[in-house]
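Contributing: when you submit paired examples, paste them exactly as shown. First protein:
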Amino acid sequence: MAWNFALYEVGAIVVGASSGLLAMRLGVGRPMTLAALVFAAGCVASTVAPDMATMLAGRVAQGLGGGGLVSLAFVGAARLFPPAMIPRIMAAMSILWGASAFVGPLIGGLFVAWGSWRAGFALFAAKAVLLALWLQFGPARHTPKGTGPVTQMRIPGLRLALLSLAIVAVSYAGITHTTLGLALALAVGLGSLAVFSLIDGRSGDGRLLPQSAFDPRAPIGAGLVMVLAVSMAAMGLTAFGPLLMAIIHQTPALTAGYVVALISIAWTVGAVLTSGMPERHDPAVIALGMTLVAVSLAGYVVAVPRGPVGLIALCAAGEGLGFGMAWTFILRRAGRLVRDDDAERLAAALPTVSQIGYALGAAVVGILANSAGFGPDPTPETAVRVAHWVFAGSLPFALLALVTMLRFVTVRA
């Protein structure tokens, strides 16, 4: 079951990292059409899958297509609209993201209840084909072409392989129960990620990420480290919240699921409420939003093990509200700070780095939970101990996000 999620993330991160380069060479429209078709093919593979291997292959394809669509949407927003419009565009995207986060699990649950999960994948395949047709023949066909000739487009195979290896190894570290397996997986994963960053930074015009992508001394590097760290810190409730609430507080599964969904709903509310803020307030809004996220994450340390569930929901709402406020303006401010030749790379890097953070964060909370004695049949006492470890162990990453946020918002644009 874990690999169903991990391999989707691998595909999404790999293509997301390439999206800026793709947009520079080919524009936005054609790569988005291809991404929609790849996603549809992955859904078809899962629909007809006779075994788990085929199902996982389908999930990789879904990640490739889904990651491309999300990253290219950010690139399109940065390329097609003036900076003053970016917060409203991001708010519109947040509304749709929140709606999908709310409705998507409901649709999946209905198909499972009807005894036909395969039909659920078939429905999403049909939706992706319709999206591809709309992208090919609708208004998207008029989007600007790439800024570089197609002949310059080379697939950076080694770097993408290193990135894939890093995410797979880190994901394995989060689910293995052996000390040796954990040590090897972390060494391979973090080492591959470091080598990828080193090679990519020296790749000139063919680089996937902006210059100084993970250097906290540089404004863009500080912004991306902030996004990476806060994404890592925020994985505790998503990964373990529903299960811990069920064991500790006997919370019904549907209620626990929608407590987690409050993050997406509040994210949308935060994005919409702040979308009209003038650009001069970007640093203050980003700082306020990130601080609210950090405070909410700290609140989980008390709320999840002790309750009540209403307090957990309040923290989830605060987390989502803070993310919605900050994320809406991160892209606009980063666009002011980045070099002109890195604009597309930056727009694609923001959601991709966030997904890398989610993958790393999932591994971290998995390691913390295993270290706290999480097993197949946890008792309430064990679950309380796990909750303390998981949420307290995530706080250093929240602190790192706040430190790098200060650099990002105080530098002169």
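Second protein:
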Amino acid sequence: MFTHSDITAALHGELQRVAGCATAAYPRAEVDSRRVRPGDLFVALRGDRVDGNDFVAEALAHGAAGALVERIPADLPSGAALYQVPDALKALQRLARWHWRQRPLPALEITGTVGKTSTKEVAARVFGRKYNVLMSEGGLNGDIGLPLVLLRREQRHDFAVLELGMHYRGEISLQCDLAPPRYGIVTNIGYTHMERVGSRAAIVEAKRELVEHVSPDGAVALNGDDPLVMTMRGAAGTRVLVYGTSEGCDVRGSEIESRGRDGISFTLTNAGRSMRVHAPLVGLHNVYTCLATAAIALADGFTLAETGEALAGVSNPLRLKFVDGPGGALLIDDTYNAAPASMAAALCVLAGQPGRKVAALGDMLELGDVEEEQHQAIGRHAARTVDVLFTVGPRARWIAGAARAAGALDVREFTDKQELASALRAELRAGDVALLKGSRGLALETVVEALTSPAGD
């Protein structure tokens, strides 16, 4: 918890006014007035479309014990402390940095185009065998999300596994300044963020900021099967561990097998020693999740046997889920987000399932100038994989068109999610397996909810 005294010390010289009745301690900070819990400090961020300062009263009504604001309401609410600052976001970051510096934890920090969240989830479970782990929750990353995570550190925590998001150049450096990393992982470099930073070269530079900040007495794990990731090796001022399936990787996976819904098996090799590992993670692409985690576990002192046992013991924490669908069909719910690499990986998971294969694919966002070619590549992949293809969204028309050109015979396009859900419900039957995937902005989980609700609406 952080206290009134912590806030005033962290923001010394920045506080313009403190009003109201200060509470003894705050358990968390929150930026969404709808998610405030009793006792929280509400941080009133000013965005392009919404100004959090307009929701201070709502946050206090939901139980916030204080608020970090840029303007104090005319009718000052009683019973809560208000801390006025020129810039609430910078104040939040400064508070998080100060709080973390009071008792810093060794931190493993993870970035990359895809695979960040799954690697974070698996790493937290593996390191949880040795430590009490503070882990980034949900989608909390970036210059807003990471400070919120750091302010949720508890006395029991003695290790952190943190996901670093990237919306602009310098954002990862900022996050590394808030919580300096002992260990780092770069998963891969893809096309997502092209719309934000302009090129894959710019993405490499932005992600490389993590490599540059890892502690000299720590280690960074780089994907040896990704040439763009490997260009970062020279930027490291610490031990580099290369993981992957290629010969010469320090931590290597070989003899990789899919066991369908039961997970994957592979031979894990490091320093001339090998062991067979079975991990309950669906999809062959998750061997990289395991290898990246294994590399840092070994660097932290886990033995090879301890590492393999920990990977075998993780419960499936991933966003890809198998759920029962209408008519006895099986749904693969991978609706949280989508990028070209993760879309291709999900299609590979679908290809490995028995039965008739159906895919409902939506737009992939933030691809910038390469969005058409990347959607078309997924369409060609889908033509080789699925029996029936549904698409939804304006960009997904490129998926549909490329799939037809590649020989797909049953392709159906939709612009409305409700119509898509109705068509899927009518189409699916016992023995079918249907993949649903699209970018976060489409919220395709609503289609899954429609298909799994008793009434189908």
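If you have annotations for the second protein, write them as plain sentences, like these:
The CA atoms of residues 278 and 368 lie 38 Å apart.
The chain has a mean pLDDT of 91.
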